[in-house]
Amino acid sequence: MVDYSVLSTQSSALFADLAFRGTLSAWVAYPLMVLAIAAAFFMYFRESMKMDLFQRLVLGGLRALTLVAIIFLLRKPVIVDDVTGYKSRPIAIALDNSQSMTQHDPRLNSADRLRIAIANNQRAPDAGLGDPGSLADLPADRPSRAEMIRAVFSNPRLKLMDGLRPKGPLQTFLFGQRLHGVGDTPANPWLNSFTADETRTALADSLGDLLQRDENELPAAVLLITDGRDNSSSSPLEEVGRECARLKVPLHIYGVGGSSQGYLQLKDVPVQDTLFVEDTVSVPFRWRAQGFKEGEVVLSLSLNGRPVGEPKHVPVRDGDDFTETVTFTPDKRDAQITSKQELVATIKLTQGDQVFSDQITKTVRVVDRKVKLLFIENTPRWEFKFMQRAFLRDRRVEPSFLIVNGDRKAMESGAPFVPAFPSTRKDLFSYDLIIVGDVDANFFTAEQRNWLRDYVTEGGGLVMIAGRDHAPASYLHTPLEDVLPVEFQAQRFPLDSNERTEEYQPRLTDIGERSAMMSLADSPEENQRVWRSLPGWNWNYPITKLKPGAIALLEHPRKQADGKPLPLMALHYYGKGLVLFCATDETWRWRYNEADKYFGRFWGQVIYQVGLPHTLGSKSAQLALEEGEAVLGKPARVFARLFTPEFRPLMTERIAARLERLDVKPGEERFRSVTLESVPNQPGEYVATLPNDRVGRFVLKVESGAEPATLEYRVTLPPEHELAPSSMNEDALRKLAEQSGGKFYREEDLHRLANDVQPQQVKFTQRQEVLLWTSWWTLLAVVLLFTAEWVIRKFSNLS
User: Fold this and answer.
1) Domains and CATH numbers, the chain
2) Its pTM surpasses 0.70
3) Distance (Å, rounded) from C-alpha 535 to C-alpha 558?
């Protein structure tokens, strides 16, 4: 595409070189010339006709010159000369051809609407933004960035291309993932190639490609037309700006886009599915905001259509992940609704006459009762002491404590202590959850052990916390061995046996990462960080393996002898009841420097998850996304845990599910079929891959199993996606233009662009070659020699 205009040239012809391109070598040509000269004079001096000496010399000379000229031309002589001159550097025009150019900016203020009027030739190019006049006269539409570019370059008063042509030859380019040149002719203008369909933008790399030229071929200036998005370059813009300054190639940048994009989205609102009356509920809002420079984000909640809590006002900021918490307290009215209820979280921001909002709906239930808990422990070990304090402070729990080897007077002193194990089956079944510590199985009578098994079978929750003396070792060959989710051998660990091991950091399993019971933070990423930062443990009861249908939530970082992970916390359904086994008694170590922040939260969640199903009914189907959120173009796995009506793990190899798009547009596909595949060696566990190939709201519905299960989620654009709404990156573009020695322009500045671009000239040296054997004047010289000889011969009466 190089088309430089040569302004002036100067030849050094006096010092030109003579070269030969023919195959006839000098060793042959020079002897031939000598022979030709000799033959020519020999012939004329032997001529019998009467001629004086002068005539013989002239005719012989002409014949000799003719023959020498022919031999000379047979060598294909070339005159080589260096020509120096000055030419204009080109003006490069680079246009962003990525999909972000298809975005429609909201144009919230009068300045942005005036820019539309200037582009569309409804206002004079130099009118500026000072006096908007009547706002009713300003355009109210929202043209795309591509439409604004086309309007600007076709504006008859701006005449950008005509103004730039006198500055130097124009070179037109488009760029997305890479830079590529496009032609510009009257029949096919360069904007005809502008499609705004490239999926990535390598802005810095494309500018770098323009600079990868010989010093004499660099552009005098670059007109860059872009919104400033760069999601694919290998080098930063600052580096390109410094290189432009070094090479003296200024960047004149036309920034395309509105002053604000107005992108507000709720990412997640994690909340417990069971809420308690008169208990403060903290609801964390996770959201994304882009393109706003001022204003307040309002976070609000409603339960069953009724506003709850106080709306929270937060100054808006640009970013991909913000978290703020809104609190409210359910009252008795909410608990009177027996069906599932809707908690709606709404985020809203008002900019001018436009409102940006988003919301997420969560299904919850409100309970007007406490979880009735019986905690049975052998002696008040550290785990018991701290759990006792936490449960007594928890307004949602009604705890009772039985210490087998505790002080009798204390046990008989009344609530919260009880003097003995419930004396009747009915009294035992009145509890929602029973926690068994390091209690000898023989503490329970044979009948009481059967009661405990039946209690779990009928829906009661059971937690066993392992100990060094009795639990679970003494429960082998008892009815409670069947109730526990793990297999084990009888071992005892006397306190003076130095059985403490090296400290280790427990690790969440894949299922544990998705479990609300194991959540110690409001986001998956923060939860992982918290688990990695918790104080480690020194002891655990060695579990042999999980029982069929059981799942491990937490495991030891080191493998067992057979290479399988060692479970530390395991869970399963036994009948209708949920059973949790904890292989350590050291969760109290989490209180170091944190008090009950993590310790209290964890055991509170255990109580709600294991104890509440006793009165609220078991939730036998569970669905969860692997990473908590779905992103366009990134397939995600969804996990399901499904049970039979008898609360046994579902054993079907495949389960059919249906994926529904909730915000489908007319003519678009609404339903898709999804197949859940069973996970090997994990009865009741299923997995499927969701394509995430469309943006929008979706719900996955599974009808198989004991009860229907649904998972509502949203597929969002990744922050750097071309179609992710974002405002023009004005700050970065201004800095880049200034750094390179150029200027930044909006529509109101474009009338100055052509005058700001300064032409540049560059000296060049070009080697020229003159081909003598094809030159008309060399051929004419040979013909003249032949003609001169023929004329003289005729006047000399020679034939």
Assistant:
1) 6-87+768-795 (no CATH), 90-259+727-759 (3.40.50.410), 263-367 (2.60.40.10), 371-616 (3.40.50.880), 622-716 (2.60.40.10)
2) no
3) 17
